[in-house]
Design brief:
Length: about 425
């Protein structure tokens, strides 16, 4: 792997503890850094960047990506620019003041909440709170009592109810196969729950168009895995970039990465034992109630589950096992076939190019203890992480005006992959 992306990946895994503690972005700049041909000078520059965790956060990077976005502390910006010039690395400024950018976004989102109050339906006009999403699926189930069923599957650390909605075609005579979908693992990835909401709407309100997806399959959907973190990001612009859960991880720091907390090769690679780090794996496997809830769902449906899909941002990428090691399962051809179906559908419809392949080699780094590896090991023959496209300044903050385009494009890929699964794994 090119040294540029090896070091970018390292930075993604060891995000700045200083940024984590304050979550205040006034005066921070975001730079787009462009890859160059490999050189000793470039390697040295990027090594310095990756190791200086107090002042930098690399917001993106995967193997083969042409650029990376880097957030830089105000006190370090002059040094950063001088390093760029010294090593002849090209860049451009994406945001002069990330704090101001996020503040404007926060004000716009607040205005949109007033303009589009919850009315029983969730559209694509704005991002919604966890409470609104829970109310939406409850109302939807009441309207469709033969086709939608709600189950409270647990509580978050702060006591929020975590609920699933099961969507069927009304035929309860057979023990159908299952497609299990979740969103909102990482708090700042708002486009993930938004995509899940759009998916729910498609399955319920467009039954005729999607009848084939429900003939032999039930869909079990958990819209927001990490509601505490998700709600925390909606407090103000200063909390917008929060990623983890909200359970205290030490006397000084809060939160665990729930997608490093699963008991499958836990903390072997790509996870931190530093409680202040963004990829902190937790004190032990399933230390986070949110991760334990997802694992319970996976095990509950493992005998019928054919497709596990967890929605994250950002990519765009479709990733399959393994993520903990640079290897692939024996059934890699099946995984690749389904991922390719999603890739081709999106490319044909919109021109967006998704990368797809085994997680470690495609994204450029290992990440042990993730839900997709866990689900595959528990018996789901198709298990994917879908990294949705970037938006906004950091990549994690698409404006509300982008929601409609992003969720519709994502559904094209998701439905294409689901149709491939339906044909590959017919009901026994």
């Amino acid at each position: 792997m090119d040294i540029f992306w090896a070091l970018v990946a390292l930075s993604c895994l060891t995000l700045a503890a200083g940024l984590q503690k304050t979550n205040a972005y006034e005066g921070y700049k975001v730079y787009e850094v462009f890859s160059k041909a490999r050189s000793a000078s470039n390697e040295l520059f990027l090594s310095e960047l990756a190791n200086n965790q107090t002042y930098y956060e690399v917001l993106s990077g995967s193997k083969g990506r042409a650029s990376a976005r880097v957030m830089v502390h105000p006190e370090e910006q002059l040094n950063f620019v001088q390093l760029m010039a010294h090593h002849s690395v090209s860049y451009e400024v994406v945001s002069q003041n990330l704090g101001l950018t996020l503040r404007r976004q926060f004000e716009k989102n607040r205005m949109l909440r007033q303009l589009y109050p919850y009315n029983g339906r969730l559209g694509t006009e704005r991002f919604y709170t966890h409470a609104e999403i829970n109310q939406f699926i409850e109302d939807l189930a009441k309207e469709n009592p033969r086709r939608a069923f709600i189950k409270t599957v647990g509580k978050s650390y702060e006591g929020r109810l975590i609920k699933t909605i099961t969507i069927t075609n009304g035929d309860s005579r057979r023990n159908k196969n299952v497609i299990l979908v979740d969103g909102g693992f990482h708090a700042r990835e708002w486009i993930s729950p938004a995509t899940v909401v759009y998916l729910i709407n498609q399955l319920v309100y467009n039954l005729e168009e999607n009848a084939d997806l429900l003939e032999d399959f039930d869909w079990v959907i958990l819209p927001v895995v990490n509601p505490d973190g998700y709600e925390y990001t909606q407090i103000s612009e200063d909390t917008r970039d929060w990623r983890k859960t909200r359970k205290p991880s030490s006397s000084e720091c809060v939160g665990t990465d729930p997608n490093r907390n699963f008991d499958f090769h836990w903390k072997e690679s790509g996870a931190s034992d530093d409680p202040c780090n963004n990829t902190y794996a937790g004190a032990n496997p399933f230390s986070e109630p949110e991760a334990l809830i997802v694992s319970d769902l996976i095990r509950t449906y493992s005998d019928r589950g054919q497709f596990y899909l967890t929605l994250h941002s950002y990519g765009p990428m479709i990733l399959y096992p393994w993520g903990y090691i640079d290897e692939v399962p024996e059934t890699v051809d099946d995984l690749h076939e389904v991922a390719k179906a999603g890739y081709e559908a999106i490319l044909e419809a919109t021109g967006t190019v998704y990368k797809y392949g085994p997680s470690t080699t495609t994204i450029g780094y290992a990440a042990a203890g993730a839900s997709d590896d866990y689900a595959f090991n528990e018996g789901f023959p198709i298990s994917f992480t879908m990294e949705l496209p970037p938006g906004g300044v950091t990549g994690f903050d698409p404006p509300a005006s982008d929601i409609d385009r992003l969720v519709k494009e994502s559904w094209i890929g998701i439905s294409a992959m689901a149709r491939k699964v339906v044909t590959k794994y017919p009901l026994a």
